[in-house]
Amino acid sequence: MRINFKLKLIFSYIFVILISFGFIAFFLDKNLEENSLHDIEASLINQAYLVENQIITENLKKEDVKHLGPLITTLSEKIKCRITVINNLGKVLADSEKPRNEILQMENHLYRPEVRMALTNKVGIDTRYSSTLKIDMLYVALPIRENKEIIGVVRLALPLRSVEKTLSEIRKAVLSGLIFALALAFVLGSVIATQTIRPINRMISISRKFSEGDFSRRILQSSKDEIGELAITLNTMAQGLEDKVKEIKAQNQKLSAIFNSMIEGIIVVDESSRIISVNPTIEKIFSVSRKEVEGKVFLEAIRNNDTYEIINSVLANGESLSAEISLILPVHKTFEINVTPIFDNNTVSGCLIVIHDITEIRRLETVRSDFVANVSHELKTPLTSIKGFVETLLEGALDDKENNRNFLKIIQNHAERLDNLVNDLLSLSHLESKEIMLKKIKFNIRQLVEEVISGFSSQLKKKDIEIKNELSDDISLMADRNRLEQVITNLIDNAIKFNKEKGFIRIYGEKINDKLKITIEDLGSGIPEKDIPRIFERFYRVDKARSRELGGTGLGLSIVKHIVELHGGSVGVESTEGFGSKFWFSLPK
């Protein structure tokens, strides 16, 4: 239970008075008790001397109980205290409180403290509880001598009821005074504490506003004492804090804007690799939320051992590190990571991790490298053939009327292949630049497919392939007709080239939500499962030798993909090796 300051102040007054009165009462009680006992002891000693003078030593030596008993009883009545006569062996010969028959049965008193002291020729004094009378008793014993020989002891005993009664009265008076003083202290303390606490309560109320961030309030206190100085200090502190908070908020807003708008991923961790903060880019990269990861150990929040090892190395050595890492989950990406230590008083207190996504850069480098390699390879074959046949003709084959036309036809075929390759490369480059402007018009898709099919009549007849256009007559699209004609042409061309003799091609469509999906199905050789993910890549061929033999450049499907994606659609393939393929593309209706 919390006790407020006002009650503490009141209780402090009461406590001081209580302690003061306690000490006074303690020493007064002890002093009165000691003085009373000292006076009683002195009185008993004097009376013991008088009694000792009345005792006849012959009677004591003869243990004449008949004479000692009445004498002791008479003296006891006069001095109002108990008198006991004991010989030097500790035997009780007379006692004013006991009849003669009981005296003989009393225990030996030789080892009573006061008796032993008296037998050593000293005044024996002792105070102890009497089990007989159920009260504290004061005992005084004097030696009885005969010719300097101690022959016995006379002992006087007095109950301390009077002393205890006097002390009890004094204690009651002290307690009453104490209660009155405490009550007065409580009343006066309450008044004084209220006056003292009032300005402090005002300060507490204003200070709560300070703690809530409201530094516009000020404490009004006119006194010139310590409380007044405290009010001035708090007001000055509030003004300083208000200025600092405004400055920090402005800086934090700038830093937060920079932190959240950076395209690089930023992570700040402490000396135990516990995440302090992350920016939105990190949330996107690792598919996490700031609330989930902040406060957790890095490896617990983001499971990437490579990054965690770099962070630990920087925290341990205090030196910046850079590295390139690959992320497999949730997506496969490549990052450049830079980790810099954060120092506090020359001690590493954390580190800053900057993660830059270089996936696209690495992909473009790979694409460029593959492109150069593939183009070189594609160009080298026809150029080598052309060069070889030209050299053959120059070396004399030109005059060979039986073969020279055949050589020239081969050169013409390779030249056409080069021309197709260059045209496809230019078309693909144009599409990849994304600077192409689509000329969208509304047209009937079935009619467009029929026109494309009519252009392949000779190829279809040559391989005896049946083709069916199952598209509905009422399907219309808003798209670039010429580009879409290029898509359908490439797909039907592939379906014919890689189909078997007396094969079958089926073209059909279906509506899926707000998109139209068109499928071109053939009964060709199909595509191995391992090649399906790469089928739309540039220059990728499943059967390279057969593709070149059929005049393919390896760019047709890549062109199809780029045209469809420019329209906001998607492409795909379903195929089982040996059982044909289904190439499809979907476009917004």
Describe the structure.
- With 589 residues, the chain is α+β, with helices and mostly antiparallel strands.
- It has 5 domains: 5-166, Beta-Lactamase (2-Layer Sandwich); 215-249; 262-357, PAS domain (Beta-Lactamase, 2-Layer Sandwich); 362-430, Signal transduction histidine kinase, dimerisation/phosphotransfer (DHp) domain (Helix Hairpins); 437-588, 2-Layer Sandwich (Heat Shock Protein 90), CATH 3.30.565.
- It contains 18 helices and 17 strands.
- The chain has helices at residues 5-54, 57-61, 65-79, 100-103, 113-119, 161-211, 226-261, 280-286, 290-293, 298-301, 305-317, 359-394, 404-432, 445-455, 457-462, 481-497, 544-549, 556-566; strands at residues 82-87, 92-95, 124-130, 135-146, 149-159, 265-270, 275-278, 321-327, 333-344, 347-357, 440-444, 466-469, 476-480, 504-512, 515-522, 570-575, 581-588.
- It has a 5-stranded antiparallel sheet with strand order 2-1-5-4-3. A 5-stranded antiparallel sheet has the order 7-6-10-9-8, sandwiched between helices.
- A hairpin with a 2-residue loop joins β9 (333-344) and β10 (347-357).
- α6 crosses α7, α13 (404-432) runs parallel beside α18 (556-566) and α14 (445-455) packs across α16 (481-497).
- The radius of gyration is 60 Å and the shape is rod-shaped.
- The two termini are 73 Å apart.
- Mean pLDDT is 80; it is low at 545-551.
